[in-house]
Design brief:
With about 130 residues, the protein is an alpha+beta fold. The chain has 5 helices and 4 strands.
């Protein structure tokens, strides 16, 4: 697992693919652990990690089967900072994930992640711009 994690940290897509692979296997706790393990400095935020796991388990139990994810927005600031928004497809309704990654040297690491069942006003405007 460690070699897979190290290899996937060479790209944002690799991290996302592995995260959603675990997520799709109904291993939401493991997917959260994996993505937070990409950044050693986030591992001290155990209460936040536990809270994210609980919220994710609760919401995914309500919205049904997982079918995949689509990256809908990717913004880069230089070569070391990337924001990615994904629509995660479920039976009942989608979830929207926002990830921010940072690459201080050789490996990408998570800075922030959030998810919700709706987009805020700014995200809706951005998505409309992408669709048009």
């Amino acid at each position: 697992m460690l070699s897979l994690q190290a290899a996937s940290q060479n790209s944002v897509d690799g991290i996302l693919d592995h995260f959603f692979e675990l997520y799709g296997e109904e291993k939401t706790d493991e997917s959260v652990d994996y993505i937070f393990e990409t950044n050693q400095y986030l591992l001290t935020a155990q209460q936040q990690i536990i809270s994210i796991k609980e919220k994710l388990k609760t919401i995914t139990s309500l919205i049904g089967q997982y079918y995949g994810y689509d990256k809908v927005i990717q913004k880069e600031a230089g070569s070391s900072y990337v924001l990615v928004r994904c629509i995660v497809r479920h039976d009942r309704q989608p979830l929207f994930f926002t990830f921010v990654f940072y690459k201080p040297d050789q490996k990408w690491q998570l800075l922030t992640v959030r998810f919700d069942d709706k987009l805020d006003d700014e995200e809706m405007r951005e998505l409309k711009n992408v669709i048009q």
